[in-house]
Input
Amino acid sequence: MTRQLLDETIAYLRKELTSIHYDLTWADGAQAESFRVRQMRLLAELDRLEALRRTMAAPVTACNPTSSAYSASGISAER
Output
């Protein structure tokens, strides 16, 4: 899953959870229970995706061994 897709999915889940929160204010009985079950499942999925986002490796920029950064640090690019 790409980072962008992950962020979009997280945003969607947050929007759905907000909607369910408002729906629970008027729902009762079986309908309220249904909303609560959906809310718990969405919260679990949101937690999982946020944990995945935190553990995703940040993109690593390629290092050019002949760049001036190596020269300035005294590291020789030739071996």
The first helix runs from residue 3 to 24. Residues 1-79 form one domain. The radius of gyration is 23 Å.
